[in-house]
Amino acid sequence: MRKISIFGATGSIGQNTIDLIRRDPDAYDVVALTGGANIARLAADAIALKADIAVTAYENRLADLRAALTGSGVKAAAGQNALIEAAARPADWVMSAIVGAAGLAPGMEALKQGATLALANKESLVCAGALLLDTAKRHGACILPVDSEHSAVFQGLVGEDIDSVERIIITASGGAFRDWPLDRLNEATLAQASSHPNWDMGQRITIDSASMFNKAMEVIETHEYFGVSPSQIEVLVHPESMVHALVGFRDGALMAHLGAPDMRHAIGYALHWPERRHLPVARLDLAKIGQLNFQTPDPARFPALGLAYHVMARGGMMGAVFNAAKERALDHFIASRIGFLDMATIVEQVLEDFEGSSSLIDAAMTLDNVSKIDQLARQQADVAMTKRTG
Ligand code: NAD
Ligand code: MG
Asked: What is the pTM of this model?
């Protein structure tokens, strides 16, 4: 039996992972499940999967979790340290599906014990890609991409030499506002931004898809994970979300990965890698679909994309600044304190604030330094927000 843990088990990726695990319960020995405020979901899944331990991120919910697990034999724990301790529990395969920079420290800990890390938490690659990859290397651990585009690229590279890759194209659905004119975008409401045309995901990534901050993060994720230069990475708007990514080789061949928009494909590929096993995802009927569309993203309506290339050009720990400022701007949008386009303006301002701070940005990439920069960038995002709203 394979020992597995799921971080962010109560979220969209976590639940899709559990759906796959449940179909083959004898194959897995579940070690840890973690969640946030949804104690009922966390406890029910931990009991059903006979996990050793369930951890909520919130210390003040420990009593609730204990109560929900009474008599089940599943241990309860809470808080940041408990998450790290759970990640240190021996496991063969660990799903990293916490949302935001909070996923970085548990992911690092899982790598330190040599586990295979199935990485949905793109934020950790954006914040500290080099640190994560280096930690994996030092501990003989392996990181497998779970973001659909990166899983697609990874699959396109099987048996290929990365040096023969000319370009990597990741697709973007265009999110909720693909066809909205610029002047309408700032009026976009939270409810409108929280509804995705093709994918059913957590609220934060859904809004990031509407603003294309999600795609901006994925461009950086591509750069960090595959080691290709920023000029080799392209984004193509593809409303149907069926072609997830394309790898272009130096002989001109373009290998596309197609599949239904269902995260269980990328999760399942990472779960069974290097094998391919049957997965319960819809099969595409291309004749019925008839036509697939592609267009170039509009930089004026989606300024987040340009910011990603700026972050990569600056290098150092600018990714941690970018992610933290974006997370904070998103908090403010969700709290209705700023408009939709203000998110990109705030992030751009924070990037400018840190541009010349070489002692911070170009310091050694450690977990402590990344966390320090993360906090400072969040503070600067608040300053930029106050300036905008008066
Ligand atoms: P979600 O909001 O549905 O779930 C997030 C999970 O993280 C929950 O279990 C929540 O309890 C937990 N969590 C939230 N804040 C936390 C904190 N501070 N500390 C510890 N745990 C915390 O999100 P999701 O859509 O499942 O996305 C999870 C990750 O996967 C994100 O990094 C996202 O970008 C990435 N991802 C998601 C999808 C998708 O289809 N949902 C696709 C690609 C990548
Ligand atoms: Mg994606």
From this structure: 0.98
